[in-house]
Amino acid sequence: MAEENQSSEQQTAGEGQAAAPQFAIKRVYAKDISFESPQGIKAFSSQWQPKVSQDLNTQVDKVDDNHFEVVLKLTVTVKMDDDKTAFLAEVHQAGLFEVSGVEGVPLQHLVTSACPQILFPYAREAIDNLATRGGFPPLNLPPVNFDMLFAQAVAKAKADAEAAGATETQQ
Length: 171
Prior knowledge:
- The protein is of the alpha+beta class.
- Helices cover 43% and strands 34% of the residues.
- It has one domain (21-156): Roll (Bacterial Protein-export protein SecB), CATH 3.10.420.
- The chain has helices at residues 2-19, 104-133, 146-170; strands at 22-36, 51-64, 67-79, 85-100.
- A four-stranded antiparallel sheet has the order 1-4-3-2.
- Helix 2 (104-133) crosses helix 3 (146-170).
């Protein structure tokens, strides 16, 4: 009798776990890496103050019901005093993530905020490595608050939807 109760409790616990949200990192990999130094040796012939700009973007592709490929695209451009490009480094850092038991906005937050946050240190290290291998000083990029970027995107989408709704009611 005790064994039957124990078996029933284990089965119930197993069913509860199946419904619980699941998240796993399956693989992290470099999908594309590029480095350009268009000035060549001229970039090293004089002293200059670097002007660093970075462009950050994410792309999410659903592989199957429980797997998502997330690609963090990071482009860093360093310009010289005369506004000529000293170097440009681009990294598409990707990851395959397994997600189940999560739907709607929490899923969107997970794949557009949490996953890129996992990938960013890899991309940042790759950019630094490219810069130093290109003969330039180390480039330590500051951290990025992906949660804030997600909140801003949600607020913008909401404002755009409200503006579109207001435009439709005026017509």
